[in-house]
Amino acid sequence: MSNFAPKTKEEEMMAYENQVQNDIQYIAFWKRVQMHLLDFLIIGIPAVLLYRFSLSTSIKINSVFPLIIYWLLFCAYYVFMTVKFGGTPGKLLSKARIVDKNGRFLHIGTASIRYLLTFLYAIIMVLKLKEGIDLKVSSNDINHFISTHEGYFSSIGNFIGIITFVECLIAAFNNKKRTLHDLAAGSYVISHDTFKRMKENAEIRIDLTREDTFISTQND
User: Is residue 136, in this structure, part of any structural domain at all?
Assistant: First the structure.
């Protein structure tokens, strides 16, 4: 006769929950670098062309409005893709998803927090353009002016650049590969397979904030 009593339904559910929790894969640092490179190829090149066009148009009409429109569309695109699809094309092609602690796509508010540094950078660029317009910089020279002109806004822009670099390094040195913007927004970047399992097991209380489970990262 067995000394072990059969597991109750609650115990079986808890064991299954732990199994699903232990199968979670977080996207490793270098794969995140790869995703950013893909985004640059897909989004970055057209975005740079539109950015330069908005700059020259702003100079021609002596207004920052075209650049404001550009940055609004740029930021809205990132928020929309994150909320609707769980990531930009680079992440989607790399089979990764941005989710909250329960494996759901972010809401508009949390997605906006995730891209807060981008919003701040956009504001700095608009203010630097305004400075260039006030100084009568030509459309041929405005891009160089914004890139090289020293001043209050340049210092803030440089500071944002340092923060961006530091937050990327942070992702390389924590178990769940989270950057500062992930920590601020409560977001995680996980594999698509993990996302599917969490979605299929929605009745299970999966919590990515738990630290008592095996940490797996996806490098390929």
Answer: yes
Closest CA to 167 of 175, 153, 177, 157: 177
216 lies in some domain: no
Residue 132 lies in a domain: yes
Residues 67 and 128: beta-carbon distance below 8 Å: no
Predicted confidence pLDDT, tens digits, the chain (220 residues): 445 555 666 655 566 566 666 678 899 888 988 998 999 999 988 999 999 999 999 999 999 999 999 999 999 999 999 999 999 999 999 999 999 998 899 999 999 999 998 999 899 999 999 999 999 999 888 888 887 876 666 666 677 777 777 877 788 788 888 998 999 999 999 999 989 888 877 666 667 776 654 455 666 6
State both tokens at 75. Answer: 């930021």
Domain around 27: 23-204
Residue 219 domain-assigned? no
Measure the CA–CA gap between 108 and 145, rounded to whole angstroms.
Answer: 34
Rg over alpha carbons for the chain, rounded to the nearest Å, is 22
Please give the structure tokens belonging to residue 106. Answer: 């972010």
Domain count, the chain: 1
Instruction: Answer for the pair 119, 75: CB distance below 8 angstroms, yes or no.
Output: yes
